[in-house]
């Protein structure tokens, strides 16, 4: 018998069987099996009038390429999506505290989101898993290489800044079925992308902005989430490999004014410099897109340099033609000074010829002929 001051504590311990602590029990509780295609075929709502809200987030991991001629943008991104499934709920205390786990992505319904600007599908397979939690939220994470179209503005090339869009939207569902929402703001997305950036090619990442756009689709509203990636080009290499050499070529063309015009060296030198500028223009033509609406400043710069060199070449050709014409033309009648100079030259030539003839005669007189020499030896 227990005394009044003695308290007896009885502790009841409920031990969950070991087999109830596996993920199989959770799947059995949720009735998630491959045979249950109903969960993957339709939107996970118990009332069709209820809207499925899909949260989306994109992080830029690398800028792989920007092709100006094709006007395409190649990027490597991480895509994060989250939505609510009304058929998936459980109490963690009933299943050994399990709060979340992963299942194959074929088991559950996924939003039919697509990227509007994508022109080529990623060759890598998508993520095979979905993560679900006890509250009914489904999370899908996938990394992929996106090859998308991007309208290039190359007016200030190579000091240009490009902005490329990546737009997510549903293919079939309207806003009364699926509502797209942005998971984070512009500042956080820019910070995460800058911290996780792996490669930037010849570009410098600036920021990412996200906005929602609603447009009419056959009488129904459809919302899109638009991510705008802004980046600026690294222009140092283009300056030293393209702009500065063209400047040096025009300086060489100006220095050719010191070459005399009476020979062909000046003309050949100018033609060589002009061909060098033409090669530079061909290289520029391979870089810039031909469908641009405005003429880039660098093209105007090359055309201006080419025009100045062409005028300089024409001036050299005209001067050499006039000099050649003057050298083969008869005596000019309208220029007395030129006639006087030509007469003086002729008089000098005549005098020189006369003196040469007189000198030859005196030499002949002083030199005895062979007959005279033989007669002199005969008398001896």
Automatic annotation (TrEMBL):
Transmembrane regions: 240-259, 294-313
Keyword terms, alphabetized: Cell membrane, Disulfide bond, Glycoprotein, Ion channel, Ion transport, Ligand-gated ion channel, Membrane, Postsynaptic cell membrane, Receptor, Signal, Synapse, Transmembrane, Transmembrane helix, Transport
Boundaries of every Neurotransmitter-gated ion-channel transmembrane domain copy: 243-326
GO molecular function: extracellular ligand-gated monoatomic ion channel activity; transmembrane signaling receptor activity
InterPro entries: Neur_chan_lig-bd (IPR006202), Neur_chan_lig-bd_sf (IPR036734), Neur_channel (IPR006201), Neuro-gated_channel_TM_sf (IPR036719), Neuro_actylchol_rec (IPR038050), Neurotrans-gated_channel_TM (IPR006029), Neurotransmitter_ion_chnl_CS (IPR018000)
Domain of life, source organism: Eukaryota
Pfam family, one: Neur_chan_memb
Bilayer topology annotation: Multi-pass membrane protein
Reactions catalysed: Ca(2+)(in) = Ca(2+)(out); K(+)(in) = K(+)(out); Na(+)(in) = Na(+)(out)
Function: Forms serotonin (5-hydroxytryptamine/5-HT3)-activated cation-selective channel complexes, which when activated cause fast, depolarizing responses in neurons.
Family: Belongs to the ligand-gated ion channel (TC 1.A.9) family.
Protein name from the UniProt record: 5-hydroxytryptamine receptor 3A
UniProt source species: Oryzias sinensis
Lineage summary: Eukaryota, Metazoa, Chordata, Craniata, Vertebrata
């Amino acid at each position: 018998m227990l005394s009044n001051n003695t308290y007896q504590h009885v502790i009841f311990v409920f031990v969950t069987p070991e087999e109830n602590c596996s993920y199989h029990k959770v799947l059995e509780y949720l009735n998630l099996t491959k045979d249950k295609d109903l969960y993957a075929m339709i939107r996970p709502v118990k009332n069709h009038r209820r809207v499925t809200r899909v949260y989306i987030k994109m992080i830029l991991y690398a800028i792989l390429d920007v092709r100006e001629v094709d006007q395409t943008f190649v990027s490597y991104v991480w895509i994060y999506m989250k939505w609510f499934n009304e058929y998936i709920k459980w109490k963690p205390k009933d299943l050994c505290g399990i709060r979340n786990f992963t299942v194959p992505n074929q088991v559950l319904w996924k939003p039919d989101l697509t990227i509007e600007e994508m022109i080529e599908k990623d060759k890598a397979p998508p993520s095979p898993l979905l993560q679900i939690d006890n509250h009914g939220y489904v999370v899908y994470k996938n990394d992929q290489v996106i090859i998308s179209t991007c309208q290039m503005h190359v007016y200030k090339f190579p000091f240009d800044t490009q902005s490329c869009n990546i737009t997510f939207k549903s293919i079939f569902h309207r806003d009364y079925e699926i509502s797209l929402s942005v998971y984070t703001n512009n500042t956080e997305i820019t910070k995460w992308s800058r911290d996780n950036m792996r490669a930037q090619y010849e570009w410098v990442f600036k920021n990412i902005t996200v906005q929602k756009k609603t447009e009419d689709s056959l009488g129904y509203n459809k919302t899109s989430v638009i991510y705008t990636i802004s980046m600026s080009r690294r222009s140092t290499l283009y300056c030293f490999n393209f702009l500065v050499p063209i400047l040096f070529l025009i300086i060489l063309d100006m220095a050719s004014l010191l070459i005399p015009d009476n020979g062909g060296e000046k003309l050949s030198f100018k033609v060589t410099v002009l061909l060098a500028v033409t090669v530079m223009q061909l290289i520029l033509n391979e870089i810039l897109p031909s469908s641009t609406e405005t003429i880039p400043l660098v093209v105007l710069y090359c055309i201006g340099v080419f025009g100045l060199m062409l005028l300089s070449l024409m001036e050299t050709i005209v001067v050499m033609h006039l000099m050649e014409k003057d050298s083969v033309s008869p005596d000019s009648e309208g220029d007395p000074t030129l006639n006087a100079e030509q007469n003086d030259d002729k008089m000098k030539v005549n005098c020189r010829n006369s003196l040469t003839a007189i000198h030859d005669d005196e030499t002949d007189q002083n030199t005895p002929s062979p007959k005279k020499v033989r007669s002199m030896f005969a008398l001896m």
